[in-house]
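#structure-requests
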Amino acid sequence: MGIRVLYLHEFRRTGGAERALLELADAIRQVGVEPLVALRRRDAAFTWLKSRGIRAVPLAVPRWRHGFSQPLLPLFLFRLQSRVAPGYIDLVHVNNYRSAPIGSFVARRFGVPCVCHVRELITPERIRRYRLSSPDALMAVAEAVRNDLIGGGISPDRITVVHSGIALHQAPPETETRRLRERLGISPHDPVLGIVAHILPHKGYDDLVQALALVREKFPDVKCLIVGRAPRQRYLQRLLQLAERLSVRDRLILLGFQEDVAPFLHAMDVFVLPSRTEGLPITILEVMAAGKPVVATKVGGIPEVVRDGQTGLLVPSMDPSRLAEALIQLLEAPALAKAMGQAGRTHVESHFSMEREARQTSLVYAQVLAACSSGSMRNPRPGER
């Protein structure tokens, strides 16, 4: 029998971390891990798991709110134990650091170790608030994330870097991409930029709109696809007002959340991600796998994925002028953009496949279980209480 792992994540909406968990649960079965995922019964993710024969517990994971959450934990544990047989779980895997206290509580009650996935840059204050000294091991999606954890007081020997991976798919027929562009009101010769990210300030949308105004001076017919939810309507309205002032509102095509982003990635000529902070964004891997060049900021784990000058171009964050220059450079040189896109696809195939992530994750599980069996874990480190 393989390692039996309970995956916990507080699903409120589907984003990069949620998609990453679903893909991991699907792929990790191939390396001898038996996944069990706790999430809402009527969530689309629940249906996705069930359609692939992955066991899912219909139980919402409570949000961690410090002392306000603690009365909910015994009830959550009771409901979980009523659905999971005693001794069934070997390990708890928390998919996001915000659920680390919940995962550690569940793991202690089941008498098993806890592994926490850290998918974004994190401050020392949040390391303390979300009790990241509690899990037996932390999985960081990038070296930049690992460095933040160490800077926040976590011992390096408790952190393993496991780069995120994605499932690789074939490109859709060109006729489908052409029809999609036509449906969006894009002519065959219009340059198309695009971004896939929730419309939030830290994603750098203000910088993108300002850069778009500069790009339009060179390419009057440029369009920009925006795929993602707008959780903060006030921010969205401010962003659209900025676009109006800069005369690029008509260049923006807001598509909202899309369950399948692949068709939209293939409709783009250049992908742009002007984030001000990031861990290792899944969307960059997806767009590189789609064979498209990337223009992104030098933050977090992005430079660990995008090879500047080879698979895309990297620019400083919060610098619309440099962002515009990089976008113009690729739009002016379609052959260079195509070569970078092809190099990106090869790079993802070699280093960021879902199979690779699944293998490395299963090794972390095995190491944690072996260390707990020998008694070398569960001992608090100095300064980590």
